[in-house]
Amino acid sequence: EEPAATEPEAGLAPSPVQPTPAPGVATPSPGDDDTIGWPTTLNPTGKTYYVSPGGNDANAGTSVTAPWKTLGKAAQMLRAGDTLLMRGGSYVTNYFQPAYSGTRENPIVVKAYPGEVPVITGNPTYNVYFNVVGRAWIVVEGLRFEETSGGIQIAANGASYLIVRGNTFRNHRGETMINVAASDHVLIEQNSFDTTGDPAGA
Length: 202
Prior knowledge:
- This protein is mainly β.
- The protein has one helix and 14 strands, in the order E-H-E-E-E-E-E-E-E-E-E-E-E-E-E.
- The protein has a six-stranded parallel beta sheet with strand order 1-2-4-7-10-13, with no helix packed on it.
- It is globular, with a radius of gyration of 19 Å.
- The N terminus is likely disordered.
């Protein structure tokens, strides 16, 4: 028989119910970022991969001279602790939906190759470009989403511990640049947003 619920003492507010972390998601520790539970310094220890518009998905992807071509290939290969460096150039109608989660100590990081500007553009696959569904500990940093033609540029659905940082979103003909649904511990910071919707007003 379940115990009966008790009323809080007079003058005391009831204790808030603490959410249960998703499987594989660590509880924040002392010294973490106090807003979302991330370590203050990210030092993933996995492999570094490369992707380039001039690459080939048959490549190993582990060197700057033999990069993959598509974000779809990268999404299937990245594991906890891995970093994907995106070379400069246009990624047209590429679709990124990570197949695996990172961890607190070893997130999956997707970011621009130093000194270069990767541009995600074109028509979206499944109406979205970056789609984080039911995954945790993912970082998207330093990318440019530009001249996109509808849908959502970055979507988080059932995601946990996601950082979207230092990206540029411009000239998006759809209504939504970033959409977050049923997700927790999502940090969106230091991004630039410029022009969404049909410029003709239609």
